[in-house]
Amino acid sequence: MSPTLPPSAPQASSPLLRFAILAGGLYLLWFLGYEHYLAADGRLDAVLTRNLAVVSTAGLRLLGYNATLSGGDQPLISLIGRPVVFIRNPCNGLVLYALFSGFIVAFPGPIRRKLWFIPLGLFLIYSLNVLRVIGLSFNSYYDYQSTDFNHHYTFTAIVYAGIFALWMWWATRGATASRSASAKPYAAA
Q1: Where are the chain's structural domains?
Q2: 3-class DSSP assignment, residue 41
Q3: Which helix (H) or strand (E) is 67 found in, with range?
Q4: How far is CA 106 from CA 38, 67, 74, 119, 143, in A?
Q5: I need a labelling partner for 73 at 20 to 30 A (CA). Which of 14, 53, 55, 66 fits?
Q6: What is the tens place of the pLDDT at every residue in 82-96?
């Protein structure tokens, strides 16, 4: 007779425990890797920050506004000749990409679905961040006094709500195989 654990004891196969351990491990790996290598090196942050500034400026131009970009490490977007937004490394979305990806990797689900959902989610988060910078540019140009509040609260809440919506979609729909796709069709008699 083999010993058994009481029903209340967590088992190693518990999906919640597996998720917590994997998510915690991925976060620790990200934190150490970022703080000790990526942030210290600075090249990845610089490329992402510059790209965000270039694409946001192009978006403003696409909307018909005279937008220009200047600056090196901290790009400055100007709208109709007035400086409106500095983009610094913490605003480039890198940490958000890592948190989103870590959640999807840690959450149970088919690897094949993760391989398309993670890039799709990263693209959507990137797009939200571009829209955030464009929105902050307009905010700074037309109502400078409210820019700091909107930067720290309004636009942050919108981006995090978008990420949360992606996580919820993954947790409720993306991680589980479709019943109709997995059901075997059979002929009627």
Answers
A1: 15-176
A2: helix
A3: strand 67-70
A4: 22, 41, 34, 16, 42
A5: 66
A6: 999 999 988 999 999
